Amino acid sequence: NKCTICAEPFEKSVEGVCGRCLAHKPFFDLVTVPYLYKGLAKDLVLKLKSQQNTSCSKILAQLMLKHWLSLGANHIDAIVAVPSHKEKRKQRGFNQSGLLALHIAKGLKIPYQQDWLKRIKWSKNQTGLSRKKRINNIKNAFLVDNAVKLPKTLLLIDDVVTTGATVNEVARVLKKAGVKQVIVLAFAR
Fold it and tell me: Is the pTM of this model over 0.85?
């Protein structure tokens, strides 16, 4: 079982909202993921990110899409992806969340808006950082294009949600810019 808001797995078979979400309501409205970040799911993500096997993005996106459709009809106005810094894109050659968003947008026939959101702050890799350090590391890293009238409901795509610090910061910026609902769809948690 997992938290009904952030999808944090529970150690025991309990249901409901985790203590963290109760204590500090996140800016996102919901995180949904089909897999835990271990085993084959972890291997697929690492193939995409570390081994730069971009063909994995289509497989991950298909599995994410299948999961999303299994949840039932949810109205989404547009899709955005957690952006990567231009230097990171230059190093890797792509933004893995953007690739996933592109495939999911095609599958849902919903526009993917890759220019609405930018990462303006270079931050250390989040791997190995504590939750508090992740929050500080990612603070004020994103900017929304002020010229765009944002829709009410956005589907935010990411590859992996660990502590939720990144998607929460993106959701904070989007809501400050006028978005009413931010639903996060990631491959793994």
Answer: yes
7 falls in which pLDDT band (50, 70, 90)? Answer: very high
∠ CA(57), CA(98), CA(29), 5° rounding? 105
Question: How far from the centroid of its chain's Cα atoms is residue 40's Cα?
Answer: 19
Instruction: Return the structure tokens found at 106.
Output: 């095609």
What is d(CA 18, CA 107) in angstroms, rounded to the nearest whole number?
32
117 three-class SS: strand
CB atoms near residue 185 (< 10 Å): 27
**For 66-81, how does the pLDDT look when each residue is reduced to its tens digit (9 = 90+)?**
999 999 867 899 999 9
CA–CA separation, 82 vs 133, rounded Å? Answer: 19
- Strands (DSSP E) contained in the chain are 30-32, 78-81, 117-119, 142-144, 153-160, 181-188
Lookup result for tokens 């890797």: 92
The pLDDT tens digits for 11-31 are: 887 789 999 999 999 999 999
